[in-house]
Amino acid sequence: MKKSNLFIIFMTVIFVFAGVFFSSGTARVGGSPLSTSIPTPTPIKIKSIPCALATYIATRPCKKWAFSLLKNITSDFPQNQQFYISKFPENCYVNSQGNFVCYWKNPESACKAQVEDRNFSHPSYTELFKKIERVNSEYYNCYTIDSKARDKPANYYLASPIQYENAEPQPHCATQINGPYSALPDDFFYCNTQYAAGQSGFDFTQTQKNKIKQVNKQFPSNGNKIRSDLAGFKYSYNGQTFTEPDFLTETPLLPNSVEVHHIVPRKDKQSCSCGANSVKNAALISRQLNQFLTNNPRTSVMDMNTGMSELDFIQAKPKYPYP
């Protein structure tokens, strides 16, 4: 048989197998399809990355992009602060030091926001985003153009520069939490290093997760089953109403699979390290509710039965004894 024919047969077999593999549900990470109860994407979690890299990611300074706002944002002008919060709710806030700040995740989004700010502050302006130009790794120039003369390069305007600077976590990251597992020891080992207490931005270790689940299951009234720490929490999403079940399964990747949840989020809106992997900040909830809370601001999620926020709801729970 000719070599060309052998090559055609070989490639045909490869494409057939590839089509079968990717058309089946087994190609997804985890091996089974997601529940469609809540139509939100599930982030793929990297199961294992080198210790040094994981520690660096969790502990590195959080740097984001910012520009000089045109309105006076000192504490003497709270109306201007509220104006920016209403315009950029995911970006502007008062940090833990009491300073009003606005940050963006990349220079282009910061430049586009700056164009909006220029148009807000000067009603006569009709500018559009044109381009960004890299000066160095921490500095970009932002160019705009008059919308009435968008095809005339001579009408480019150079806005204030976009700068890369340290971003402080949002104030809620400092919230003191005493969750259901506060009585457990708070020390843990990570990458052959012992920590005396939870660390901001760290995920829970497998040892921590196992210990928390064990304490929950061994509580007499739980009957060797895992009870959700938000059992009965009722919430609405995309027009549907859901209620957190009383008990959870240890079978993975189901809507009611148990997951260890950071009460204060591990990352804030700007992806800066926020809540710690302290046992005080841990709660066992369903995978479905965990997905929902991950994609929504915690303070805006209220139990539909009691009107309590997630934080208040969980703080009101009795603490599990230990040992």
List keywords for this structure.
323 residues; 2 domains; 5-stranded antiparallel sheet; disordered N terminus
Number of helices: 7
When the domains are counted, the total is 2
Largest sheet at a glance? 5 strands, antiparallel
Low-confidence stretches: 1-47
Sketch the topology as an H/E string, one letter per element: HHEHEEHEEEEEEHEEEEEEHH
What's the β-strand tally? Answer: 15
Question: Structural class, please?
Answer: alpha+beta
Classify the helix fraction into a percent range.
25-40%
Strand residue percentage? 15-25%
The rounded Rg comes to 25 Å
Q: Give the N-terminus to C-terminus distance in angstroms.
A: 73 Å
Q: Please state the average pLDDT score.
A: 82
Which overall shape is indicated by the principal axes computed on the Cα atoms? elongated
Describe this structure in words.
The chain is of the alpha+beta class. It has two domains: 61-168, no CATH class; 172-315, no CATH class. It contains seven helices and 15 strands. It has helices at 3-23, 51-59, 78-87, 107-121, 206-218, 287-294, 310-315, and strands at 63-66, 92-94, 100-102, 127-136, 139-146, 156-158, 162-166, 188-190, 193-195, 226-227, 234-237, 240-243, 247-248, 258-262, 282-286. Strands 1, 4, 5, 6 and 7 form a five-stranded antiparallel sheet that branches. A two-stranded antiparallel ribbon has the order 2-3. Strands 8-9 form a two-stranded antiparallel sheet. A hairpin with a 5-residue loop joins β2 (92-94) and β3. The chain is elongated. Mean pLDDT is 82; it is low at 1-47.
